[in-house]
Amino acid sequence: MFGQDASALRLSITDACAASAAAIFMIAAPVHAQERGVQPTQPGQPPAQTLQSGRLTPSQLELSKIIWSIVAAVDHANRSGNYSVLRDISAQAFQSNYNPARLTEVFAGLRKSKIDLSNVLLVPPTYYQAPQMVREDLFRVKGIFQLRPTSIQFDMLMQWEQGRWKLAGIDLQPVDTAARQASQSTGPTTGAPRQ
After folding, report:
1. pTM of full prediction above 0.90
2. How far is the C-alpha of 112 from the C-alpha of 110, rounded, in Å?
3. Which of 30, 88, 117, 195 is the most exposed place for a label (fewest CB within 10 A)?
4. DSSP assignment of 64-80, as one string?
5. 29-65: per-residue pLDDT in tens?
6. What is the end-to-end Cα distance of the chain in Å, rounded?
7. Domain contains 191
8. Structural domain includes residue 135
């Protein structure tokens, strides 16, 4: 669930992908999240993909570093109340649409929850699927940092700009790990092995 402050700003990534020619922005500042029923694929890293332009999507390590860096920037912004660095390291269109004051409003729910996002730096991300190219200069990556007691789900859009991948959209969702594990273990019993 998204906080009330963020609901007006959150654009559906699915809709944004369908309208990939338009600028894409998504920000969420949840207070509490419910498990969405999406299970991560095998732990590991997605493979790099070559684009028509010859530019690669980030390698395994590079993708993890980009994601860690962005989540760390959100954590620093939440702790300091200053979102100008997060804004400044993002894509230009993102910067045009969200000034630091607006980002302060958007992330108010996540900030008030006092979740320590720096813990994501201690574990590798687990991806729900390999990054999906939305268009030549934009890809989407979804996954989770499996932490206890609260995991952090992420859904990010990255745009190629000025010779590097920059944040174009973000959705961070805290997920109660115990509730998530309980929902995974209470599936229907058919006698078939679990996958």
Report:
1. no
2. 6
3. 195
4. HHHHHHHHHHHHHHHHH
5. 333 333 334 444 444 545 555 544 456 678 889 999 9
6. 27
7. no
8. yes
